[in-house]
Amino acid sequence: MDNEKLTPRSENFSEWYNQLIQRAELADNAPVRGCMVVRPLGWALWENIQSALDKRFKDTGHVNAAFPLLIPMSFLQKEKEHVKGFSPELAVVTHGGGQELEEPLVVRPTSETIIGYMYSKWIKSYRDLPVLINQWGNVVRWEMRTRPFLRTLEFYWQEGHTAHATEKEADEETMRMLEVYTRFAVDEAAVPVIPGRKSDTERFAGAVRTYSIEAMMGDTKALQSGTSHLLGQNFAKAFEIQYLDENNTQQYCWTTSWGLSTRFIGAIIMTHGDDQGLVLPPKLAPIQIVIVPIYKNDEERSKVMPFIENLKGVLSDFRIKVDDRTEVTPGFKYNDWEMRGVPVRLEVGPRDVEKNSVMSARRDIPGRDGKKILSLEGLSGEISNLLKEIHTSMYEKAKAFRDSHIFDPKDYEELKTTIEKGWAFSWWCGDGSCEAKVKEDTKATTRCIPLDQPGGKGKCIVCGKEAHEKVYFSKAY
Amino acid sequence: MDNEKLTPRSENFSEWYNQLIQRAELADNAPVRGCMVVRPLGWALWENIQSALDKRFKDTGHVNAAFPLLIPMSFLQKEKEHVKGFSPELAVVTHGGGQELEEPLVVRPTSETIIGYMYSKWIKSYRDLPVLINQWGNVVRWEMRTRPFLRTLEFYWQEGHTAHATEKEADEETMRMLEVYTRFAVDEAAVPVIPGRKSDTERFAGAVRTYSIEAMMGDTKALQSGTSHLLGQNFAKAFEIQYLDENNTQQYCWTTSWGLSTRFIGAIIMTHGDDQGLVLPPKLAPIQIVIVPIYKNDEERSKVMPFIENLKGVLSDFRIKVDDRTEVTPGFKYNDWEMRGVPVRLEVGPRDVEKNSVMSARRDIPGRDGKKILSLEGLSGEISNLLKEIHTSMYEKAKAFRDSHIFDPKDYEELKTTIEKGWAFSWWCGDGSCEAKVKEDTKATTRCIPLDQPGGKGKCIVCGKEAHEKVYFSKAY
Q1: What number of CA atoms fall less than 13 Å from residue B378's CA on the CB side?
Q2: Which residues of B touch A323 (CB under 8 A)?
Q3: Which of A122, A300, B17, B45 could cross-link with A295 by S-S, CB 3.0 to 4.6 Å?
Q4: pLDDT given for residue A126 in this prediction
């Protein structure tokens, strides 16, 4: 058996991405156009993302619930921006139980409307607030151009929906969840992200303000990796989400919503992956350590296998896998687990057994430079440190790549060439027409107005008018 | 504020069930007929069910994945029994992205077809077998009569789908998962269940054999609480799931599927619930211990609250909640948490603080008999034992109730009256016409032919012919 090589990233990034997903068995195409099957490795990765995020949600006071998949068409029409944004993307159920339905139902593209409706039933008094609910589930958006994880008809995500008594509280919640996403991306996925505000054009349909975390992929395109929306009173007014305040006066709630999806798996693939395949951040990797036995004959095998059995006990704090397949060579296994992104490989041969040690190899540093002999004594602690080191090193590498591909073009002409090689971080007057011109000329969109601003003022890179904020322009997924 | 009482179970069981679900805030009706919203308490219970089952699935070698929600209509038509069974219940998507679809898509009612299609792509050789995949998700079945948790248009479940090289292995898998469900029901949910085989009439559409676990609810009706199907080669032939065996010959796989759904929440409610509300089994209860502070004034409060703060540390191994609401009385809180089924309540007043103890109350034994003073010393161990005792006692009580409502009617006339007060356990010749007669005369169906048989033979309770197996007849949800 032979391991097939991927098309190199430098040659065709898009082809590399598609091949990697197939070869690493992360996902497969479903028979329905634009739908995907998330295979066991991909789903285990998503489960680890879920559990890391869910802990952060619960630590910030949220609880989970489940709202229905099917929403009456009329609900979407209650918020005019919302329906405008989502109408073109709806999957519509017109028949149920053999009968045509009186009112068509949409398969939820997002759940603000149905949750708004329920909140209006549940919320009566200021004592009921805040309501802090999250939902893990699937949604359907009828996209025309699809790619596994990045844009699929059905995708998996979490959507938080909160209701508050005041604008201030809702605003704080929006920012809190943006921070939760940022910390998750950096601390768990080793993906450097830039938190910021979306432009009005890029805002969620029905929101007052949308914030996002933006990451740079290996081809320098941007990927919006999580969003947090301040919905103001838009949905509260559309769905009559009201409460009696302490003075017995009816008030509309202030609501937020925020989501992160299986898209983030795309972010992990394209931030860390290399020409050998997937490189998974240790904290999220379904398998953190793969152990490969090396032997030439039964005698060697009889030494190596009991040693590995013992190793399993020593490493019980980690997610490990022993690859004891007999029909393939160790070399095949190395390539195979490199393709699947396992952070650490331990090779165990008869000599290692004699020396009471193992040979470790880092996925993120290919070849000899990533290899190290580790003694069995204190191994668990060594591995723990190694995984931390890998996390930090993956983060630093991705950040260095990103920072070296962010430019500050001196004028509009230079911006145009900048977009071909990375992101432009430029002053922008905030005008939609300047944004539109950049998009038309370069295909780049405004990614976000980062929270972290240089201060002061400058001249809009497009029109030259006074500008008070800098924005990232780039092509995006 | 006052706690509203439930309609007693003895008066109107069905009304009691509906009220309990509303008052305990387990679920609510969605705006679409027959759909439900699972509220945070209900969902937290489901999450605990998921995590208990998921561990058992992984311990038996299964992995999770996610298959698409939308299935081409033509897929269902490939297995003739399957399409006959599910056609009347389908929700159909006819429009997507503003266009009428060329082929209508069904919202999955179950996933044998789409998974069969994928398995036929993935499975090539005997080395790829067995494939042991489970999926957690939502499905839609257009039911006419719905009730929260028991029968809803959309429900949540897990569906395992496995493919094997031989019939024997598939058969073993079917029985293994039936045993997993049995152990889960008994050991985690304290729900006594009877594992057995379904009659041909009650078999899953497309299966060769269906097994189920059957539980008796508080009104003596049966609830099918989990199913495991041996699918034979039916789906393998419909979807060309084939492998090359060791002799290089193409063979069809043998497949199984098995599922347990949010219906099980209904089983927990109706097995354990009483006139005060929900009674949750300790291992699955989202909150295992609620702590209620008792004080008359600020001085007492200043003694009680720091004591409770310390208690939280002592009890950190458990899922606890301190109810420090100031707008309601302790009595209100007792009723409130009884409605929500929390297994243990700890009351802490100034006297308890002085004595360095707490007053514990068991949810499953109302009133004084369930109360006990527990010293702070060794409290964690005491509580751990108490929770175990509650589990056992809930199980024993439910089992005693069930066993005292299972009868062995001497003839068909007695069977008819038996059905009005419980289950009949009777010899049955296996003939569908006898089964149909019972259903017509009594509304009872065959629940299962239990694995545990008395042996020997008897006379069919309906036709008097020789019978080799006994079956449970009862009304069912």
Answers
A1: 6
A2: none
A3: A300
A4: 97
Q: What is the ipTM of this complex?
A: 0.96
Peptide bond into B104 cis (omega under 30): no
pLDDT one-digit tens code per residue, B138-170? 999 999 999 999 999 999 999 999 999 999 999
Shortest CB distance from A66 goes to which of B38, B65, B66? B38
Q: Would you call B156 exposed, middle or buried from its count of C-beta atoms within 10 A (0-12, 13-18, 19+)?
A: buried
Q: Which residues of chain A have pLDDT under 70?
A: 1-2
| Nearest-5° Cα angle at A51, A50 to A53 | 65
**Residue A147 near residue A35 (C-beta atoms within 8 A):** no
At residue A181, the pLDDT reads 98
Q: Do A98 and B118 touch (CB under 8 A)?
A: no
**Contact at 8 Å (CB) between A181 and A260?**
yes
* Helices and strands in chain A, H and E counts: 14, 26
Residue A250, φ and ψ in degrees, nearest 5: -70, 130
Residue A131, strand partner residues: A163
Q: Are B144 and A97 a contacting pair at CB < 8 A?
A: yes
Q: Six-digit token pair at A209?
A: 């303000």
- What value does the mean pLDDT of chain B take? 97
pLDDT of residue B4: 81
pTM over 0.95: yes
Residue-wise DSSP of B120-131: HHH--BGGG--E
pLDDT of residue A2: 57
Q: Name the residue in chain B with its Cα closest to that of A117.
A: B31
Which of the following CATH numbers is that of domain B289-384: 3.10.105.10, 3.30.1360.10, 3.10.129.10, 3.40.50.800?
A: 3.40.50.800
B98 vs A87: CB contact, 8 Å cut-off?
A: yes
Residue the block writes with tokens 């559309």: A238
CA distance B162 to B241: 11
B404, HSE (Cβ side, Cα atoms, 13 Å): 8
Using CB atoms within 10 A of its CB, is residue B182 exposed (0-12), middle (13-18) or buried (19+)? buried
| Location of structure tokens 């393709």 | A339
- What does the domain layout of chain A look like in residue ranges? 13-272, 289-387, 406-474
CB A263 within 8 A of CB A297: no
Q: Where does A289-387 sit in CATH, by number?
A: 3.40.50.800
**Residue A4: predicted pLDDT:** 81
Quick one: A144 exposed, middle or buried, by C-beta within 10 A (0-12, 13-18, 19+)?
exposed
A13-272 CATH = 3.30.930.10
B84 has a pLDDT exceeding 70: yes
Mutate: best of B1, B22, B33, B37, partner A, most A CBs <10 A: B37
Q: Could you give the residue ranges of the DSSP H alpha helices within B234-375? A: 234-239, 263-272, 298-314, 330-339, 350-355
SS3 content of chain B, % helix, strand, coil (to 5): 40, 30, 35
**Helix, strand or coil for residue A75?**
helix
User: Do the chains contact at B65 and A43, CB–CB below 8 Å?
Assistant: yes
**Predicted local distance difference test score (pLDDT) of residue B2:** 56
Give the 3-state DSSP-derived string for B22-48, with helices as H, strands as E and coil as C: HHCCCEEECCCCCCEEECHHHHHHHHH
Per-residue pLDDT tens over the stretch B375-429: 999 999 999 999 999 999 999 999 999 999 999 999 999 999 999 999 999 999 9
For residue B336, what are the CA distances in angstroms to B236, B267, B373?
A: 52, 22, 22
Cα–Cα nearest to B66, from B123, B106, B114, B109: B114
State the first-to-last Cα distance of chain B, in angstroms, to the nearest integer: 36
Please provide the CATH number assigned to the domain covering A406-474: 3.30.110.30
Q: What are phi and psi of B411, to 5 degrees?
A: -150, 180
Contact present, B142 and B162 (Cβ < 8 Å): no
Q: A26, A43, A141: best mutation site toward chain B, by most B Cβ within 10 Å? A: A43
